Amino acid sequence: MRRLRKKKLRQILKEVRLSKDNLIVPIFVDENLKEPYEIPSMPSYFRYPIDGVVDEVERCMEIGLKAFILFGLPSYKDEKGSSAYDRDGVIQKALRAVSKEFDDAILITDVCLCEYTSHGHCGVVEGMEILNDPTLELIAETALSHAEAGADIVAPSGMMDGMVKAIREKLDGNGFQDIPIMSYSAKYASSFYSPFREAADSGFAFGDRKSYQMDIHNSDEAMREIELDIMEGADIVMVKPALAYLDIIRRAKDTFNIPLAAYNVSGEYAMVKSAEKLGWLDGKAIAYEILTAIKRAGADLIITYHAKEIADLI
Ligand code: PBG
Question: Does residue 1 lie in a domain region?
Answer without folding.
Answer: no
